[in-house]
Design goal:
mainly beta; single chain; about 0% helix; 4 strands
Length: about 45
Amino acid sequence: MDRLVIDGFYMASIFEERTVRNSILSGEYNTYTHFFGTSIGYSF
């Protein structure tokens, strides 16, 4: 089992508040993003 590798990650990004004023979508926007991932490796 020492040839099998399992990796994982998590990352969160928080962006600054953004104010938009136009005729279609006006308002304040807050954005939070979350990233998850895994990988499995095997050496032979």
